[in-house]
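Late entry, fe (ii) ion complex.
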Amino acid sequence: MSYDRSVSAPEHELGPETVWHLQMPQIRFGRDAVEELGFQLADLGVDSDDDPHGLLVTDEGLVEVGHVDRVTDHIADAGYDVTVWDGAEREPSIENVDSCLEFVRENEGEDGYDFYVGFGGGSCIDVAKATRAIVANGGQVLDYVAEPTGEGEALTESGPPLVLMPTTAGTGAEISPVAIFSVEEKEIKEGISSNHIRADAAVLDPTFTTTLPPDITGKTAMDALGHAIEGYTTHPFDGLLRASDPQARPVYAGRTELTEMFSEKAIELLSGNVRTAVHNGDDLEARSAMLKGALFGAIAGLTAGASLAHAMAYPVGNRYHTYHGETIAVLTPASTLGYNAASDPERFVRVAEMLGADTGGLSTRDAADRARQEYVRLQQDLNVIPSGLTELADITEGDVDWLARQTVETQQRLLRCNPRPVTEDDAKAIFRDALHNWE
Ligand SMILES: [Fe+2]
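Prediction complete; structure with ligand written out below:
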């Protein structure tokens, strides 16, 4: 079977892609980087002489532990007025964004605030991203969600400055051009994907991550490691077909030498520090390495493109309401590191070695399989990762057909770049393999 790797070009123009492109927000990283938040806003053109009024989007938990006060104090010290909206929910729904939009319009009218700060895990960040963009473009969330769920309108405006501050080391939402929401009545997730939704700056301060409990630390780390490994092993950019114009080039555009560099460093940082971060959460050095590793994994994976584990994770998350990170964790051994290893064994030998495996004396194909074994051992060492889909959400053999069909029917955006073709039968076998990663 062959893949249709076409993006948008008419047939007579088809040829391999020759150009790659990297677009990122400004990135400010390090211990106490929060102290530079005022400077960051000023640098984006927020002028304290204009009496600017901003909105900080977050959740109640972060207010309770005092992190939000620390952020708003720095904003106030810089001479800016800021209001806190702490209603972001885990795996946010479209209604959740609507309530933030309503809050903005009630308080500041149609023009909204002068700047936005998203502070928290991927959920808070996605609500902040969507709110800023939709206020600037008008209308409601569903206007910009793809058809048939929404109207599929394109965003044309970015809006006033948006700064994102992640408090977990995982999703990469602070740099990505996507915001993802659940549509409750349909048991699906929908995203808004546009460069207008990307933030202007990301401020990453590891001191906010030391309060993350071990299980969230471990699960978000598996998402980050998934971005790094999937990005490292996805199709190369010049193996995809050329876009007919730069505007039509897909967001996930294949791996390049640049994304590979970020993947390699991310795999090393994440796999080398996650045990310490989970078992000794106060270790700021390990926390800092994790936050940096998650950032690098996102730069790689969310540019090159996540692939098979992410494609399979969406139907699971939609139906069983599992956390994204733990879903990626249980699917990765059978998919990215199992099924996909046949696509380029030498590349997977490198992954095995980066994860710490000793591959001396093994054939290339056997050494490639060591990536999966080493990754499973890492998960077992953490004590917080389910042993497979069955432990995750009581998923059994009888659920496999539905999950495989959903993956192939709804996730072609991700499967398009997978380094090995995936039929529905292949997906069934991989889901079956992922029921139990260990006993
Ligand atoms: Fe992810």
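The domain at 214-433 is CATH 1.20.1090.10 (Dehydroquinate synthase-like, alpha domain). Will revisit in the morning.
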